[in-house]
Amino acid sequence: MTGRLLRLDVENFRTLRKVSVPLGPLTVLVGPNGVGKSNVLKVFDFLTDIIQTDLEPALEARGGFDEVAFWGGGKRPPTTMSIGLQALWTTHASPSAPDEYELTIRRRAVPGRPDGAYTLSRSEKFQFKRTRGRGRRIAISGEQATVVETHATEDAEESQFGIQRLSSGLSTLPRLARTEGGAEVSRVAERLSSFRVFDVDVRAARRPSRVATMGQHLEPDAGNLADFLLDLREQDVQNWQRLLEDVKTVLPHLEDIEFGSAGSAIDEVTVYLRERGLRRGTPLADASFGTVRLLGLLALLYDPNPPALTCVEEIDHGLHPQALELLVDRLREASTRSQFLVATHSPALVDRLRPEEFVVCERDRLGASVIPAISTEQIRAIVEESEDLPLGELWFSGALGGDL
Questions:
Q1: In 23-78, at which residue ranges do the beta strands (DSSP E only) sit?
Q2: How many domains does the chain divide into?
Q3: Is 83 left (phi over 0), alpha (psi -120 to 50) or beta?
Q4: How many other CB atoms are found less than 10 A from the CB of residue 354?
Q5: Which of 59, 110, 175, 267 has a C-alpha 20 to 30 A away from that of 71?
Q6: Residues with Cβ < 8 Å from 238, sequence gap 6 or more?
Q7: Mean pLDDT for each consecutive 10-residue tract of the chain (404 residues)?
Q8: 294 lies in a domain?
């Protein structure tokens, strides 16, 4: 895996009043329903949309600023919302001098308008370490972008250019010349645009899927699961065999996974499960909820061309506890190729985690998410005091946090 995210900072996004989430190769957000785990994942979905469509369309797709901004703490939405990232993506970035990106969106009411009309403005900041000196900073405000190059002598060179008022630097600055920061911004935009928030839609995954081009990605809802698995079998035999053995470990009655045309549609493929003792294969449409979920998740983990960050909603949903140990092992292996941010409320899955992989999520009385609710150092100390009780047991008992 080339580089990774180090931290996400968010203010006033849905239930995220003010959070700072440390991100490792594998980060698991743990907490009951409604504490804001999904909203952390939605931040990355929002950033990806900004790159693909720009800022205003990304907001409009979510109902506008008032629907995206912090939901708690009063009758009116806040006037600002911000998202910040620290990462190791560009050539000279390091933990002590990471790549930095910050987006701030401001809401201003239109004077004299009783209908609640408002205008928006945005500011953005990029910072990258260079070979020598403090590095390169790009600041965007209004219709102007400023590039500042600071050298080892502390001398600084500054250049400016115009930019559309609400256009995002993530979607427009990659067109800059390499000498003005285009290469670094392109790298950040490339990484962010590849992010995927994955949530298996079992109904969609069960359906036959149209045969597409080779080397495709698994869709975020696993709607092309059959074709993706067929492509994996044809193009990556080693990973296909490993996936098949994993499925057999959880489903010992399974003998093979086969493929066939979907009725008369020769351009569509469906999955058949060859099971011991049955005279015919079981179509995926007739497989259990948990089996389809397992296949979708393993397909994601064996993707030969993964994104920079893979987010997974409620990863334990519908899975038998015996599948969770295997799943955690495969997540750790896959996290060498794609960083993983996963949400769960399963103590059985948490039992299999390490303290540095575990982020406790809670909500306060004003509706704001508290993430993390307890530090990694505190978790390690509590585990030591408990004489190494499993994390899931400690969390479920309240020893690692509870309702505020």
A1: 26-30
A2: 1
A3: beta
A4: 16
A5: 110
A6: none
A7: 86 95 96 92 92 90 92 78 94 88 90 78 86 72 81 66 80 63 76 88 91 77 94 93 95 93 75 92 92 95 91 90 91 94 92 93 91 93 88 89 53
A8: yes
- Tokens representing 287 are 């497989």
Residue identified by tokens 């079992």 is: 202
What pLDDT shows up at residue 293? 94
Q: What sign does the CA torsion over 305, 309, 311, 316 have? A: positive
**Is 334 contained in some domain?**
no
Facing residues of 13 across strands? 16, 69
**Beta carbons of 104 and 81 less than 8 angstroms apart:** yes
pLDDT at 331: 96
Tell me if 223 is assigned to some domain: yes
Angle at CA of residue 180, ends 175 and 184, nearest 5°:
70
- Give the amino acid at 263: G
| Percentages of the chain per state (helix, strand, coil), in multiples of 5 | 35, 30, 35
- Residue written as token pair 């045969």: 211
Angle at the Cα of 20 from the Cα atoms of 3 and 140, rounded to 5 degrees: 70
pLDDT confidence of residue 330: 95
